[in-house]
Amino acid sequence: MASNFTFTTFTIFALAFSLTLQATLGEIECENLSQETCSFAVSSAGKRCVLEKRVKRSGEEAYTCKTSEIEAENVKDHMETEQCIKACGLDRKSLGISSDSLLESTFTHKLCSPHCYQSCPNVVDLYFNLAAGEGVFLPKLCEVQGVNARRGMAELRSSGIVAPGPVHSLHFGNIEPTVSPSPN
């Protein structure tokens, strides 16, 4: 029984070492990653890896890791750490990637937390670009998240700054609201 424990321990260390060595040598290919390591990884070509599910004719579900067309900025050969996955509120088994998660206040709170935002640049870069695609500046969303989460979500849903009402004295930092002239 002791030798079985030793063999299992050795196997775990060998797997961990091979993953570390692969990342160090810059040989990450999304198609070679497992379901447990695919999501939030970046290939040696700088492309993000994405987990996909397909259903076989038998009804059995099969998961594969694919190279997406989304490029990571200044990141190559990277497999996200479990600490970042946990701190940012992510799930390794998530399929694809979408900006919809930014609408969930619980997720946005974790993404904007210092443990994620300041320690997980790969994740922040990914969601920065997703937010930008929706017309939202992630640092501003995180700033608003702490003060008025509903306002931040409203901005995201509208893909930009929420138009102010007919009050003329509102100011948003250096941005002054524009009010359309009323028809006579």
From TrEMBL:
It comes from the Eukaryota. Residues 1-26 form the signal peptide. Transmembrane segments: none annotated. Pfam families: PAR1. Keywords: Signal. The keyword Transcription regulation does not apply. PANTHER family: PAR1 PROTEIN (PTHR33649:SF2). This is PAR1 protein. It comes from Vigna mungo.
